[in-house]
Amino acid sequence: MAPRRKRAAAAKSTETAVKKAKPEESTSTPRKAAEVHSGLCELAPEHKFQLVLNEDGKPRRGAFEISIAKSKDGDKVLVWSGLSKGPPRKDKFPEPKTILDDVLKVLKK
């Protein structure tokens, strides 16, 4: 009869694989935010956009929102929210072209 340690070791290895997968998921949101930021900078080079991640602390799970302020101390206006979007997960992140008009409207006010 095989020792039980082999079974326990197999269970631990799958448990470790699951734990390692979680940090990779959390890095996709900052990467997507950087992609949207760079896309907006390319589409509207006359404006200087600054990317600020999670200024108010840790974000809600599954939340991806874009807010615009004219100045650092100015009021923020929510331009896009992915909370009610998806699945699939790709719908939770906007394309820069789709939100550019909304961003420019907020900046003109």
Automatic annotation (TrEMBL):
<protein>
    <recommendedName>
        <fullName>Selenoprotein H</fullName>
    </recommendedName>
</protein>
<feature type="region of interest" description="Disordered">
    <location>
        <begin position="1"/>
        <end position="36"/>
    </location>
</feature>
